[in-house]
Amino acid sequence: MLSPQILTKGADSAALEADRLVITTTDTRKEIPLAAIQDVRRDTETSLKVVLTDGVPHWITGGNPTATTMFQTALTAALPEERDPAGSSLVTVTDEPGAIPWWSVLGWSVAFLAAYTGYVWWTSVAHGGAMGGVAFLAGFGTLLGLLCVLATASNLQDRWILSRRGVTVQATADYYPNGKRSKFYKFTDTNGNEYLQEGSSNSTPHIQVVYDPQRPARHIQRKWLPFVVVQYFFGSLAALGLLALGLWGVLAPYI
Questions:
Q1: What is the Cα–Cα distance from 213 to 188, expressed in whole angstroms?
Q2: Contacts 24+ apart (CB under 8 A), 123-129
């Protein structure tokens, strides 16, 4: 079985799935059933014009001409013989933020690097090379600790949301085409869409997965509550401890 093709450019992507074309941007997710597509035309060397059965066009872009050509061929070949004249009424558009725009990432990265370099340089000049070395290492520790704290907070938020409206289903172990067991489990939501959940143990044929019916991409493996409490308690302590240690190193030369 061939892997589904994905046409990408920057933060935008178009994925060819079994029965639909999924176009994702930084703020929306658009699902177009293949039966609603009348034709796929080349617009430029790196862009395609997807015309629906009711005549409404949609555009997708690729990073290079070769990938665009291959995606056009694959999408055209996947179109069913019988089309649905409903066209645009079959298209689903949801607000689902995707990747952060590259210019935003670049801008924040340059600003952080400039501030970090200036801080280390100033500390070395004002307090000596030893303190400059401490500041250099402490900066990375602070950043890593902050990322760990944010990741823990995000996971706790997901678990809180799932505890309020999550749906529990049984997921089945996934296997590679050669028969080898993978570390993932498959489950299907009420719309028939299939998702993968990484399991903490791949020794059992089934696990229970909780997913958000409003946003099925948010899902976790269901675990024993006391285990989850202990896991996040010590995880939060470790993240906060790393952040505190990094901040101490950053502020030590000036205290």
A1: 11
A2: 123/253, 126/253, 127/253
d(CA 213, CA 220): 13
Q: Is 228 exposed, middle or buried (0-12, 13-18, 19+ CB in 10 A)?
A: middle
Residues paired with 50 in a beta bridge: 40, 58
pLDDT of residue 160: 92
* Helix (H), strand (E) at residue 172: strand 167-175
Using CA atoms, how far apart are residues 167 and 183, in angstroms rounded to an integer?
22
For the stretch 15-73, pLDDT in tens is: 998 889 999 887 788 999 999 999 999 999 999 999 999 999 999 998 899 999 999 99
The amino acid at 148: C
Q: What does the pLDDT average to over 222-248?
A: 90
Which residues on neighbouring strands pair with residue 47, listed in sequence order? 44, 61
The pLDDT mean for the chain works out to 86
Q: Is the dihedral of CA 70, 76, 80, 83 positive or negative?
A: positive
Please give the distance of CA 253 from its chain centroid, rounded to a whole number: 39
> Which candidate, 156, 165, 172, places its Cα nearest to that of 212?
165
135-138 own/partner pairs: CB under 8 Å, 24+ apart: 135/249, 135/250, 135/253, 137/249, 138/245, 138/246, 138/247, 138/248, 138/249, 138/250, 138/252
CB 219 within 8 A of CB 207: no
Burial of 48 (C-beta count, 10 Å sphere; 0-12/13-18/19+): buried
* Closest C-alpha among 40, 39, 57 to residue 48: 40
